[in-house]
Amino acid sequence: MGLFKLFSRGKPAPEPVREEPASPAEGPLTLQITNVQGQGERERQEDSFAIANAADLELQRAQGLLALVADGMGGMEDGKAASQWTAECFLQLFQEREGEDVPNWFYRSAHAVSDSVFQRFSGRSGSTLVAVHIQDERLHWLSVGDSGIFLLRGGGVFQLNREHTCLNRLLLQELEREPIDKGRALSDPDAPRLTSFVGIDRLTEVDLSLRPLALQRGDVLLLCSDGISGVLTPPELMEAMSLSPEEGCALLEQMVLEKGVPGQDNYTGVLISCR
């Protein structure tokens, strides 16, 4: 059915991904997908990821390409099972999608998967979720939790989604204080706490693109758990995303490990280059 779950690095890319914007004479964009995953210093791997229709161009044209990363919540029961269930349910809904526009399908599916996780684990486990759908050179994205979606374009890296953490609320509170102190929000012990995740009893925070983003030749997308986005800086992400996908994934892993962050979290990344 053209459905592939990838749990190791992809095949090497022979050429770098930086190219000039596409012109009609160059034909349609092609997508090259590679992944990286590591356990860090945690006792086990609780991240999951999946890609659908990566190797079937006909299905890509008919259904689009779907990629997702799910980060099981380590502070709850069996985060690995929750992230795997999240990925499997989302992929199943993708297979069943028939003509529904992507934003509505993304929103409905996020709630359906969250309800399924909540029921399966009785509210004792959960997962983040970031996903992208690409079809006809148009990108839609979805985000629940604090995993990241980044776009490399025009010499810069841009985060497409907003992280659902208490930090956002704390920063808004600072706007009402005198003097405003961003550091106070950043140092608050509650700042990293999630305000939304798949498996919560009532899912209210879901970020998604309502309009498609037209992709350009040379664009690179990175979906990643916070074991990458919470450790590496934007310049470091840009350095890795500017390489070929295989080299970029290798550099992401190298830079994460070289940071030597105490208790380094699981890290998972999916790189998608437009060529």
Report what the structure shows:
It contains eight helices and twelve strands. The chain is of the alpha+beta class and about 280 residues long. The strands form two sheets. Strands 1, 3, 4, 5, 6, 9 and 10 form a seven-stranded antiparallel beta sheet that branches. Strands 2-12-11-7-8 form a five-stranded antiparallel beta sheet. The two termini are about 25 Å apart. The model is unreliable at about 1-25 (pLDDT under 50).
In terms of topology, how is this protein built?
Layout: E1 3-4, E2 31-38, E3 47-52, H1 57-63, E4 65-71, H2 79-96, H3 102-121, E5 129-135, E6 138-144, E7 148-153, E8 156-159, H4 166-174, H5 182-187, E9 207-208, E10 213-214, E11 220-224, H6 226-229, H7 234-241, H8 245-259, E12 267-274
Antiparallel strand pairs: 1-3, 2-12, 3-4, 4-5, 5-6, 6-9, 6-10, 7-8, 7-11, 11-12
Helix pairs in contact: 2-3, 7-8
Q: What's this model, at a glance?
A:
This protein has 275 residues and is an alpha+beta fold. The protein is built from eight helices and twelve strands.
What average pLDDT do the residues reach?
89
Which structural category do the helix and sheet elements fall into?
alpha+beta
Strand content: 15-25%
Helical proportion, percent range = 25-40%
How would a crystallographer describe the biggest sheet? 7 strands, antiparallel
- Bulk shape: globular
Strands, count: 12
